[in-house]
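Technical annex, item 7. During the second reporting period the consortium partners agreed on a shared format for inverse folding records so that results from different sites could be compared directly. Each record opens with the tokenized structure and is followed by the designed sequence. A conforming record, contributed by the partner at site C, is shown below for reference.
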């Protein structure tokens, strides 16, 4: 990557016009994707991101520039050009870079480059066969294999000089059921911050059959009713509602400028006392985990809400300056073309004391959302609507019948306050999270929960 002497020179150049902090992010990332339709490889792509991002801070004013020209002349030029946006007086800052060693909490045994394309395609073929053979109603399958291998170097004018290596892989499986007049789909996308040993140890056939089962169930389902009713939201992908409608509102990106319903509410009761919510970037080999964040700080387990009380936010370096609070190791970015900002890693509602069976048995009438789909959210207000990918009517404490077309509509903070049962079956689902610093891997999670009343939009 870059040698230490050159990094120091770039940082000094970045500070020539009065900045009080400068940072370099160097990235060398390879990635590949393969798509299989109906058992046949449709597309295969690979690429490489190789570049440097330079950030300069002066108080709470930030400048960011990037380049993929690694020549010394160009890097110094980019740093000086970026510094022209700073209108201050040059400060006497001495830079003493000291290399830090990263403890690799997320073991990478089998890197993507060490595995043949034929072996990767075999993972996909197994998923196709299991899904397509599940039932004659399954008319099509789509399987996408993804991997990346990222090396980073992060250095700053405070003396930080650290390198890290990250690798991710994921298998996205979709099964489509058709009855001649319409189609329904089921999906699953397990992934990890890990080498390809993750896929070697994954029960690929189970995930494929589960995607097919969802598609088959929904093709035969009736349309969902609408109205305000109790809603049971299952574990794993159910956590997407907290992530989108509440999690983004707990990031310094929103809180620092007051564009969040959670701003100024530390120590206040913002949720049901049954709710404890956490963002944890240290979970071993989890999809959203990292050894260090994209500012070089170790990731942490951050308690956001504890027994309903707001305890903290997710804070990056710039957010720390704006809010007067310490960084929480939550700075992330898609690649060197983005400045880092506060982002989630693995965000979840902690497990409670009720069993899933107890939650269903204690519901006289309501909707059971087994799997959640996509939706939209206003991060400033928490207003959301999310599709239910697989749903059921619950009547007299029992699951009665499957229904489709349901949409959950509400406001994140109100949903938190209306949670009246929390299960003991915490599980996580993998997804990509988008924000001003790009698209990043993030886990969502929760146990089964019950919301006492939520608006359900049906047909």
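Designed sequence (site C submission):
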């Amino acid at each position: 990557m870059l040698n230490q002497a050159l990094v120091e020179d770039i940082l000094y150049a970045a500070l020539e016009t009065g900045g009080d902090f400068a940072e370099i992010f160097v990235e060398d990332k390879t990635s590949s994707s393969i798509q299989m339709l109906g058992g046949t490889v449709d597309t295969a792509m690979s690429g490489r991101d190789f570049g440097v991002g330079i950030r300069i801070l002066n108080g709470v004013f930030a400048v960011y520039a990037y380049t993929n020209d690694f020549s010394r002349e160009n890097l110094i030029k980019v740093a000086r050009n970026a510094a022209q946006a700073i209108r201050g007086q040059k400060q006497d800052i001495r830079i003493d870079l000291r290399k830090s060693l990263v403890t690799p909490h997320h073991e990478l045994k089998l890197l993507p480059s060490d595995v043949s394309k034929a072996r990767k395609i075999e993972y996909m073929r197994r998923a196709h066969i299991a899904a397509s053979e599940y039932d004659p109603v399954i008319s099509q399958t789509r399987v996408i294999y993804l991997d990346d291998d990222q090396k980073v170097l992060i250095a700053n004018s405070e003396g930080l000089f650290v390198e890290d290596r990250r690798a991710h892989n994921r298998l996205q499986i979709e099964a489509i059921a058709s009855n001649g007049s319409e189609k329904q789909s089921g999906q699953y996308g397990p992934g990890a911050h890990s080498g390809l040993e993750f896929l070697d140890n994954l029960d690929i056939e189970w995930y494929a059959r589960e995607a097919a089962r969802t598609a088959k169930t929904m093709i035969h389902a009736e349309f969902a009713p609408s109205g305000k009713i109790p809603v049971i939201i299952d574990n794993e992908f159910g956590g997407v509602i907290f992530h989108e409608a509440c999690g983004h509102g707990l990031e310094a990106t929103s809180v620092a400028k007051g564009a969040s319903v959670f701003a100024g509410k530390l120590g206040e009761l913002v949720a049901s006392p049954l709710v404890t919510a956490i963002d944890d970037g240290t979970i071993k080999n989890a999809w959203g985990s990292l050894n260090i964040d994209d500012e070089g700080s170790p990731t942490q387990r951050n308690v956001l809400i504890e027994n309903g009380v707001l305890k903290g936010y997710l804070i990056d370096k710039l957010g720390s300056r704006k809010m007067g609070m310490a960084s929480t190791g939550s700075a992330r970015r898609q690649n060197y073309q983005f400045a880092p900002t506060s982002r989630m890693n693995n965000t979840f509602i902690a497990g409670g004391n009720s069993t899933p069976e107890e939650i269903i048995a204690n519901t006289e009438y309501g909707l059971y959302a087994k799997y959640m789909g996509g939706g939209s959210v206003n991060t400033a207000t928490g207003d959301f609507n999310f599709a239910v990918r697989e749903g059921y009517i619950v009547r007299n404490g029992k699951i009665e019948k499957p229904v489709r077309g349901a949409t959950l509509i509400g406001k994140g903070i109100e949903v938190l306050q209306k949670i009246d049962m929390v299960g003991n079956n915490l599980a996580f689902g993998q997804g990509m999270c988008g924000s001003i610093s790009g698209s990043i891997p993030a886990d969502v999670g929760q146990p089964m929960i019950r919301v006492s009343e939520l608006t359900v939009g049906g047909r």
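The chain has a mean pLDDT of 96. The longest strand covers residues 40-58. All partners now use this format for quarterly exchanges.
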